[in-house]
Structure prediction request, 293 residues.
Amino acid sequence: MMKQEIKCPHCKKIDIVRRGYFQTSKGKQQVYFCKSCKKKFKIRNSFYRMRNHEKKITLCLDLFYRGMSLRKIQEHLQAFYPHNASHMSVLRWVRKYSVVIGNYTDKLKLQIGEEIQVDEMEFKTKGKKTWFIDSIDPKTKFMVSSEFTKTREQVELKKVMQKAKIKTGNQIKIITTDGYLAYEKIVKGIGGYNNKLGKHNIRHNIVNASRGEGFNHPIERLHNNIRERTKIFRGFGSFESAKVIMKGYEVFHNFIRKHQAIKKYPYELAIPNLKLNSPNRWLDLIKLADKTI
Prediction:
């Protein structure tokens, strides 16, 4: 008898037994039989009906976010895999699994410090200005929230800070930004006002580099890393593609790339209960995402 969490996709019952294997291009896959509705099935996870092996797909995600171009990844596959994939297939994998993992990681609750830094970066998408707005915890180096947007008006800035508030509860006491005037009203509204103390629950800390007040170093360093990675794009092909690619970069920064300053992956400090047990953390995250569907 199989584990309780395996359910029949037809009748949703759990009276399941193993019933042989099915040979695919990815190797043998377990076939299950439901005693309730008398139907066979295979586990339908995020790799269901994918022609390429999950390790090959996650390898391509890792190479892409570590700085290799799509065509260079294709050349790499030609050297190591008999059944090659086109560079457009790699791009489709990047888009698909960035969304799969991002939908899961966006729901995780964080343990961070009392401050987040918020800033925005300008990009070109089909020749038009677009913006990547993000927030980072200087303590854990975790990118708390981000959005790729067509403008940087109050609506977009507020969305990023609201997402950060949802994921962290009442932990945030300070929001640090540059001197962009749109931030002030949003920060005051995010935390609300404490009538007993006679002040807002979240303090707005403004650091204006043009006035010689210094820089917000953690988020500036993050943006330098992003620019280094995205410079080979030479402008994004489409807004929707850019949106999911940058969500994948958020995942890469938080879960895949070890931060040099803290000598850890940011998630290890911000989500201490999350255990990724293999070196292929892309695959671990996809499997965790599948369990929540």
User: Anything to note?
Assistant: The chain has a mean pLDDT of 88.
